[in-house]
Amino acid sequence: MVERQDEGAARLADHREAIEQGRTALGIELGSTRIKACLVGPDNAPLASGSHDWENQLVDDVWTYSLEAVWSGLRGAVAALLADVEEQYGVRPATFGALGVSAMMHGYLAFDADDELLVPFRTWRNTSTERAATELTGLFGHNVPLRWSVAHLYQAILDEEAHVPQVRHVTTLAGYVHWRLTGQQVLGVGDASGMFPIDAATREYDPRMLAQFDEAAAGRGFGRGIADLLPGVLPAGADAGALTEEGAALLDPSGTLRPGIPFCPPEGDAGTGMVATNSVAPRTGNVSAGTSIFAMVVLEKPLERVHEELDVVTTPAGDLVAMVHCNNGASELGVWAEVFGQFAAALGQPAEPGAVFEAFLRSALDGDADGGGLLAYNYLSGEPITGLEAGRPLFTRTPDSRLTLANFARTQVYSAFGTLSLGMRVLAQEQVELDAMFAHGGMFKTAGVAQRLLAAALGAPVAVGRTAGEGGAWGIAVLAAYRASARGAELPGQSLGEYLGAEVFADAALDVVEPDAADVAGFAAFLERYSAGLAVERAAVAALRNRDTTQEIH
């Protein structure tokens, strides 16, 4: 006992010393429902964290977050992290070895010559760009999804929006925050690949497609070259600037943080998910489950055909990735857990939200393999893979179905994986092979539940590591540490894959779940029902309109 106490005291002293000396890395990720900050030590293990909850709003039929909410949320998350460090280690950090910012990919943040935002931030969740995405996909011979920044810009050009002549630069949420903190208008290549297609050889924006866009846009009266509007592109490990005095004040009004902290390139949540699961090498992949859910598979070679269901993006190092992105993920699960928590409180048995969610999720393991004949859709917004321009959360069943808590919970989990499974079938048609599929996100904190049912949905083994619940904030902290490992050089001496293998995951413990035959058959039956029932979901979208145009969506 005394020996363990001595080891704990020594470890605490080591951590305190690393914090005081700035031998740490801070990652901040702006997710759909939470802004999280994660501090890692010299071994890349999490030391402390802080978070701030926020929600997107539907304003005038546009999914958005205000810039005020961005900065109040960032300050809240950083303040919570600094307080956590002080409580655990008795020291308040004034600097870090490196810092990185990541956020939801895609979307549209357009600024004028005075750096003023021209229209409210249009997030990845907006699906109003179908005409632009279709035209650009045909023009480029490269799939341009509705979410991509270039689709938003081109749609604004097609619609002759009043702000278009004033556009001087366009960026993503991570790029915007990074720019305000460092003064540098750059993006990591992974996040940039969700703005405009990347050339696999140069790992820069594709020059042929840039020229094609300019010609098409000029024909619509838009005279600026798009290359001048987009952020610069940087690979993982590159120098992306340092925290300015203005940036330090924005991030920490208390004045604790000092300027000069070096930054890694800002990345999207897809890229940080790849890092957090050590899936940046060819034949590896990961599933990230949050408000949206998506699978990333690192390719050995380009896809043979263009598929509307598949985005082609890159890893933070610039390697090609096939992405199956579903707009709707685990949000509906969370809403139902809230309802059950309210019911428990009404019975005089209140419980913590996390405990309620875990109990609800675990009950899914006791359900029938096919969910008892129940059917649910988790569509809070449109879903391009299934052709839905808008969404309506929906639960229905036939009279002969078995409505139990366990079947209801399993059906809700299956619903979260339904659209993803349809997209992965398209990837299988390209004969893309996988050696490993990793999973991360809040759903996977509850051991063995979502992981087992995801294995059934994919028909493949699913691995979850000890950092599965840390998600992208830890991933961007690792990318910041990777930049710090360069020690002032242009790039680190190791590739990103080599660094992750040697410095981060060398001794990582993984829990691997093989697909259960009964679950696989049960999910297949559910997916058949799910595909047939999409007509019901379409009818719900047509029949049920939102009550108003300004509302928070959880």
TrEMBL record:
Keywords: Carbohydrate metabolism, Kinase, Transferase, Xylose metabolism. It comes from the Bacteria. Residues 25-251 form the Carbohydrate kinase FGGY N-terminal domain. Residues 286-483 form the Carbohydrate kinase FGGY C-terminal domain. Transmembrane segments: none annotated. Signal peptide: none annotated. GO terms for biological process: D-xylose metabolic process. One of its GO terms (molecular function) is kinase activity. Pfam families: FGGY_C, FGGY_N. Belongs to the FGGY kinase family. This is Sugar (Pentulose or hexulose) kinase.
